[in-house]
Design a protein that fits this description.
This protein is an all-beta fold and about 575 residues long. The protein is about 0% helix and about 35% strand. It has two domains: about 65-90 and about 430-560, Jelly Rolls, CATH 2.60.120; about 95-425, 5 Propeller (Tachylectin-2, Chain A). It is built from two helices and 36 strands.
């Protein structure tokens, strides 16, 4: 991690991991930023993927004291919870009423064909949507035409998109003319070489099949192939894990590696740079990682076709956020039946390998009616989400493919790009009703001094008490001295009575192991964190960025809430 611009009190506790563990022969066993200690053998060697949910070791044996200096802290699992009477609720994406935001409208977005099939396509097939602080613009890369070329669009507000006329293919917004399957475009804001600021991992279909790496200084003019990955299948994608400074290949694979295939899986490989992350051996050499399990819900067909089709991931605050594209099979083959039905579910990881997937409902779902733009298939986007004031913007692709038309001929149909909204940090909340409920964390340690919460206690209340290791309330930090929080805010400071300048902060508890105890009525708690300064900056990862952010991390806190138009002016609640 790059800590050069952090306050001095943070630099000494979030120093870089001294030894990067990776899959190409180095040692392991390092302690991560959150106190999790990796096993000596890393990545874990999985002999066989079962139909049981993936075990998550750090939820079974968590650290004795958890450092919480890195990012906002979430309740998507029980990692931070010692005991509670609150109820956990997982929340789903709310589609934008103006969807789709990108549609195929130019000849180059439908010209060309694949195996005799055509379609009107303007979709990120992973690709990427990022906010670039250098130009103060939202930027999108997407596939135009069926498995044809890569195009580029920009936006000032994330809602209204322009397709600029560029010089790569004059008169169009094409930025790479090469045929492709899925691709990943990554805005690497920590890259020291400006010529490599943008990275594209493009799966080429012809004439050579495989995943290839390209670099670009501006995301528009891409260089020739830098490196070809080892053998893999076409829905292979890549993401960056900044907690350990490794690039991770999320590899589409099968069991067995060659026909006849029995089932699909994901394999794992990582490296300290993009090239080393692509240097595994044959199809079966990367580490076994993920498959669908017995909790997966089959939809639309009774056939056991469901599988993990892709995993895109990004660092969001204190953990890795994963978007799992789940394939549920084709329809029954009749005219108008769904083709390649796919939706997107969420997962969360605190070590970068093991994923906790507590909510198997579709976070991004397909349409209800056959006329819907996303009726048959939705897919996640590289970068996963952006932060715009107090909301997350989540882009996704959607298709309306009839599978077969009325003449019985295969048809790819149309494919467009949509957008959904979620409260910032709003993946899960811990909720209390009219009867007071309590949550006590396990022992934690921090080195900031300003406590913040993301809470909706409007019409209710929240009080916070600090406990010592003996389980007793710490003097000056009792429930009775807590200033009551009655508000709906994604960045709300919390203080105690008898302090100076409006209340006491946590500076006297810095470096000590303590527990937080939250008392709530008619309230929802989404996250909490301790910041070194009064802005509430978390100093950790902002996913694909957003207006006001100057880099890959939140160094601006409350200033970011003044950097975009109020959401009530641009979309309904």
């Amino acid at each position: 991690m790059d800590n050069r611009n952090l306050p001095s009190c943070f630099r000494r506790v979030v120093a870089p991991v001294l030894f990067v563990v990776c899959s190409n022969g180095t040692d392991a066993g390092e302690k991560l930023y959150n106190g999790i200690v990796l096993p000596d053998a890393w990545p874990p060697k999985v002999e066989k993927l079962s139909l049981e949910p993936m075990p998550v070791p750090y939820l079974q044996a968590r650290p004795a004291v958890i450092p919480i200096d890195v990012g906002r802290q979430f309740f998507v699992d029980d990692f931070l919870i010692e005991e509670t009477t609150l109820k956990r609720t997982f929340h789903q994406l709310k589609p934008y009423s103006g969807n789709p935001v990108i549609v195929a409208e130019h000849r180059w977005e439908e010209e060309g064909q694949w195996k005799g099939k055509t379609g009107r396509f303007a979709i990120p097939f992973s690709d990427g949507v990022w906010f670039d602080p250098k130009d103060n613009l939202f930027k999108m890369w997407y596939m135009a035409g069926v498995l044809q070329r890569t195009c580029y669009a920009v936006s000032k507000d994330g809602l209204r998109w322009d397709k600029p006329s560029l010089d790569v293919r004059p008169g169009t917004n094409v930025v790479h003319p090469g045929n492709r399957d899925s691709a990943t475009v990554w805005l690497d804001q920590d890259e020291k070489n400006p010529q490599k600021r943008f990275k594209m991992f493009r799966f080429q279909k012809l004439p050579r099949r495989g995943l290839v790496l390209h670099y670009s200084a501006d995301g528009i003019h891409w260089g020739d192939e830098i490196h070809w990955a080892s053998k893999c299948h076409d829905r292979t994608t890549v993401f960056y894990n900044p907690f350990r400074k490794v690039w991770v290949a999320s590899i589409k694979a099968t069991i067995p590696p060659k026909p006849p295939y029995l089932y699909a899986v994901r394999r794992f490989y990582e490296g300290t740079d993009p090239i080393s992350a692509l240097n595994w051996g044959g199809y079966g050499d990367p580490y076994l990682w993920l498959r669908t399990d017995r909790l997966e819900q089959m939809r639309n067909t009774g056939k056991p076709q469901h599988r993990i089709y892709n995993l895109d991931a990004v660092a969001y605050e204190s953990l890795m956020l994963g978007m799992f594209s789940i394939y549920h099979g084709d329809g029954d083959g009749e005219p108008g039946s769904r083709r390649h039905m796919n939706d997107v579910c969420l997962g969360f990881s605190r070590d970068g390998f093991h994923w906790h997937r507590p909510d198997r409902r579709a976070f991004v779902g397909v349409g209800i009616n056959s006329s819907d733009w996303n009726w048959t298939n939705v897919q996640s986007v590289g970068g996963c989400c952006l932060i715009v004031r107090d909301k997350l913007y989540v882009y996704y692709s959607g298709r309306n493919s009839p599978g077969v038309d009325n003449a019985g001929k295969a048809n790819y149909g149309t494919a467009s790009t949509g957008l959904g909204f979620l409260r910032r940090d709003g993946f899960a909340s811990m909720d209390a009703g009219a009867t007071e409920a309590v949550l006590t964390t396990c022992p934690v340690r921090f080195h900031g001094k300003h406590l913040f919460v993301n809470v909706n206690s409007k019409g209710g209340e929240l009080r916070i008490e600090m406990l010592g290791m003996n389980g007793k309330a710490i003097a000056s930090y009792t429930r009775a001295q807590s200033l009551v929080v009655r508000t709906d805010s994604t960045l709300q400071p919390v203080r105690w009575e008898k302090g100076e300048t409006g209340g006491k902060d946590l500076s006297s508890l810095t470096g000590q192991p303590v527990r937080f105890r939250f008392y709530m009525k008619n309230a929802r708690l989404y996250s909490f964190w301790v910041s070194p300064d009064e802005s509430g900056a978390s100093y950790r990862y902002a996913a694909a960025g957003g207006p006001g952010f100057t880099g890959s991390t939140d160094r601006i806190g409350s200033a970011g809430y003044n950097c975009a138009p109020p959401l009530k002016l641009i979309h309904p609640k």
